[in-house]
Amino acid sequence: MTKRSEGFDKDETIAEVEERVQARFPAAPSDVIHDEAVAAVDKYADAPVKDFVEIIAERDARTAVENSLDES
After folding, report:
1. What pTM was estimated for this model as a whole?
2. DSSP character for 62?
3. Whose CA is closest to 10, among 53, 59, 48, 65?
4. CA distance 44 to 12
5. I need a labelling partner for 20 at 20 to 30 A (CA). Which of 10, 26, 30, 48 fits?
6. What are phi and psi of 4, to 5 degrees?
7. Residue 48: which of 12, 4, 7 has the closest Cα?
8. Could you list the pLDDT tens digit for every one of the 72 residues in the chain?
C-alpha cells in the first residue's frame, strides 16, 4: 500500500474546514467551529491516504456544529 501524504498540511486543512463551516453557520461561535474542525481533522490525520481528509473532516465538523446549535 502506498502512503500518499505529500501535500497534506494539517494546519491548512483545519483552516480551510473552519472557513467553510463558518460560512455555512455564521451564527456559530468561532471557538466551537475551531474545536470541531481540529477534532475532525485530527480524527483522519493519520489515514494512509489523505486525499479526502478535508472533505470528510468538513462533513464531520458541520454535523458537530449543527448539533451544538440545535442543543442551544
Report:
1. 0.85
2. H
3. 53
4. 14
5. 48
6. -120, 75
7. 4
8. 344 456 789 999 999 999 999 999 999 999 999 999 999 999 999 999 899 999 999 999 999 999 999 887
What are phi and psi for residue 49, nearest 5 degrees? Answer: -115, 125
Cβ contact 22:62 at 8 Å: no
The answer for residues whose C-beta is within 8 angstroms of residue 8's C-beta and 6 or more apart is 50, 53
C-alpha–C-alpha distance, residues 49 and 26, integer Å: 31
Q: Are 49 and 35 in contact (CB under 8 A)?
A: no
Q: How many Å apart are CA 51 and CA 27, to the nearest integer?
A: 30
Residues 33/57, Cβ–Cβ less than 8 Å: no
Distance of alpha carbon 19 from alpha carbon 34, whole angstroms? 9
**How far is residue 58's CA from residue 43's CA, in Å, rounded to a whole number?**
11
